[in-house]
Amino acid sequence: MKIISYQKLLNKKSVIYVDVRTPTEFAESTIPGAVNIPIFTNEERSEVGTIYTQQSPAAARLLAVDLVSPKIPKIIREIKELTENYQHVIIFCARGGMRSESIATFSELAGFEVYKLEGGYKAYRNFILKELQDYQLTAKLLVIHGFTGIGKTDLLYKLKDAGIAIIDLEGLANHRGSAFGSIGLGQPRNQKMFDSLLWERLEEIKDSKVVAIEAESKRIGISTLPPFLLEAMNNGLHTLIKNPLNSRIDRIINEYRGNYDQDEEHFLQATLEAITCIKKHLVKKIGNKEYNKLVNYCENGKLEKVVEILLTEYYDPLYLHSQNKCDYFDLEIEEDDLEKIKERIIEFINN
């Protein structure tokens, strides 16, 4: 059986990772781009574990054989299809144990060349942690500051289209660090997946001289930024964007409404749920009276008023007090047109 470490795969092309752990394990965290071909269902793995602890390892192995045997033909057909499309098919489980070893063995017996990932997901995770701990970022960061709703994320991608390297932290975290958190985005990514995606992005832009990034606090969604990145942001080139409140309100509503294909009722419900989720924080800041007014506006479809209150009475003061503290800006732009802002930033970078 061919066993290979993750490090040795970094420079290889046409690689696909096959995660044979349960759907639950896969959903929690995996190697980015991996496909899930589970050897056990969630319930089956739990059952095998129970037999292992309550009876014996031998009894658990017999049960595992009974559960897996009927699935082998289907699993091998899926592996076969992958070998036809990729040069390197890498099988892994939690620690490089019996689950990945059995699928790799069956695949080889069927005549397909595959590899087992040394140490499984645990070894991969340890590699990512070590990389982020020791990471040497050589690029200068262009840190974009501004209140919620100025279009920082859209601006990032306009800069990317113009050839400027970017790191979209909110995209990596699947969470907007702004008024509505993860409305329309599903669950935010956990620390493990965030770290993996961040490291991949850092590797993609490692030869860039300047990298644009939004100003963020230490925590984004449910993930925490690594110390080296926070330090690089503090030492970066700081750009402050300003535009009118009404423009910010319109931009926020249009952006989040777009996630619901103009389904106004669904959008209003999601907005109300988002407000309810942060009720404790809102009430502490704006009081019960203003909070109830906020809910009433939302229930009556007055989204402009909802966003205005959230911005002026909660998020703007919060931003000023706790986030992205910066005493000096290398560039300040008061403009509503993102194209013009982009051009100003590019001119600043080039000079």
UniProtKB/TrEMBL annotation:
It comes from the Bacteria. Keywords: Selenium. One of its GO terms (molecular function) is tRNA 2-selenouridine synthase activity. Residues 11-133 form the Rhodanese domain. The keyword Cytoplasm does not apply. InterPro entries: AAA_SelU, P-loop_NTPase, Rhodanese-like_dom, Rhodanese-like_dom_sf, SelU. One of its GO terms (biological process) is tRNA wobble uridine modification. This is tRNA 2-selenouridine(34) synthase MnmH. It comes from Orenia metallireducens.
